[in-house]
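ok so for the tutorial part 2 we go from a plain amino acid sequence to predicted structure tokens. step 1 is just haveing the sequence, like this:
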Amino acid sequence: MKKLLLPILLACFTISQAQTPCENGMAGAYPCNGYDLQSHIPLSTFGANSSNDSWGWTDPQDGKEYALVGLNNGTAFIDISDPINPVYLGKLPTHTSSTTWRDVKVYNNYAFVVSEAGGHGMQVFDLTRLRNVANAPETFTEDAHYDGFGSSHNIVINEETGYAYSVGGDYGGGPHFVNIQDPLNPIAAGGYSGSGYSHDAQVLIYDGPDTDYTGHELYIGSNENHVAIVDVTDKNNPILINSVTYNNDSYTHQGWFTEDLKYFIVGDELDELDFGFNTKTIVFDFTDLDNPTHHFDHFGETAAIDHNGYTMGDKYYLANYKAGMRVLDISNIDGESFSEIGYFDTYPTNNSSGFEGAWNVYPYLESGNIIISNYLSGGFFLVTPTILGVNDYESNVFKILPNPSSNYITIDSANELLTSIQIYDVSGKQLYSTQELNINSKTIDISSFSKGIYFVSLNKQVTKKIVKN
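step 2 — the prediction. this is what the tokens look like for a chain of 469 residues:
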């Protein structure tokens, strides 16, 4: 692969440096493609035997980023504002006993934690306390506790409405509604048992293509052998819109909408084990919510089991257990085709079907860094799209330079023609594109770009990260 020369950008740009770059397919001991290792914290540091779910929080006061990692015996909080030198701030111990399953989500600067441990309920933790940790790592206490349910497999939060949905507990495993608009005083708000056990879900205010449901609060449950679409706008009267199934189901585990809400992408956790095929990602067409249909299946590069997956722009970030994090280009979803464009393998031993390796990925940090939490091995990883340095392309083909005005950058090529240039923000949204140039130099107006991180792709080969200050 041809690579870019990115010197230190003067004036308006800086380049972040990775702790362990992905070189020749490896970042230290970890196989990789397109992602560098920023930092790694083993489970032993947390005093835990396993980890599970993970999430992120950005402090609105100063923009610092934090990782929240579920453990068998509590929840770890990590300051990742310096991604190469993360600080383990401490742990919120489990409310009752240890267990394999713990899940954490964030609303209004509070973390909400559930677990399958008996009698655990929902812990509430004020994340702003992380600003003033004097003697890390601390043992934290919860700021509030909700005991309206006992054990729970998972928690889903709709940040637009301030409602949490515990799943995999009471109501036959269906969602238990909790009003968390006042985070320290959660209030029971009913539940729904009509579609059976939910393993995970996504809840949102709908603004997709089916205008019959515009403005409604919808619950999309991954319910063991089907996906259920439930209108939960009226918490006292949740209504099943429809459900959809697929062939060769073993355990409908988790799913996520594409950003246009046209498609819903689902992982089945056990089908690789039961049927022997490679990682299968299932895509449903949700254009008509009253008549959802199976769109197509994508089969991955390995036999590893898929776990949690999330979309951002034209990318799908998948926690793929023994195959680590895999990143798929889903831009041709209409044409029934995905392609793998990168990965970071947090379990280098093998890529077989099994439950070691990446349990969760969190790709929504504004820095572009990605949180990965492993289950039985590895612990916490922080990775970032590959940053290439001065010596990464032997012919020094491309240079990206700032103009005297911070509103422009110039891309120069030494001995290869520029044929295409694309610039994306961290969400994957394309902000600039031009193709079939066949030129040696191009100046681009970036005056409309706000401060932040952007990715520049040249000749459709490699993507480089730059930061506008």
